[in-house]
Amino acid sequence: MSTYLDRTDTIETDEVSRTPFSLPALVDALESQTSAPTLEQIYNWLENAEVSAEELAPYRGFKDGNYWRHLVCRNKFVEMLVLCWRPGQRTPIHDHNGSHGGVRVCEGTMWETTFTYDPTKGLEYKSASEYQTGAVTGSDVPDIHQLGNPDVSEQDMITIHIYSPPLGVLHTYKPGSAAIDLYTPPDPE
Ligand SMILES: [Fe+2]
Asked: Which of 26, 65, 131, 177 is the most exposed place for a label (fewest CB within 10 A)?
């Protein structure tokens, strides 16, 4: 009997980990948090996200000058944003100042460049990666990176971001410099 129950538990756990998350289901999951979710939990949500174009429609909006941040939900433990990027739009080089988080590419192609920082050497290039539609990546503390929609993509990009705790003032960096500046992302709308 106990073996039977154990197998049932295993199957149920497996099913839970593969449960697809619509955008409303993601909002429910985030709003029910009573503590900060781990990076692994954020990956699980994003890797199992199945967000339709209709669900994204209220958050679909682009600006010519900069990528546009749209807030989906936020509490003191976690926040979710939809970012809309024209070709060539990108973030500054930044870290998340103590937050960890993940990103899922919903439409388009994303470039990520990562860096290391040493107080004496300054900022140094580490790696570059390309993520296609459906890909998920993340940033732990104290990762330094830059995200963008390649100017050569010739298509808009839409990404979903989950951060815990919600982003506040970030640190920004410049290649070849040891200077660290403070940066407050534009208020999500
Ligand atoms: Fe970031």
From this structure: 65
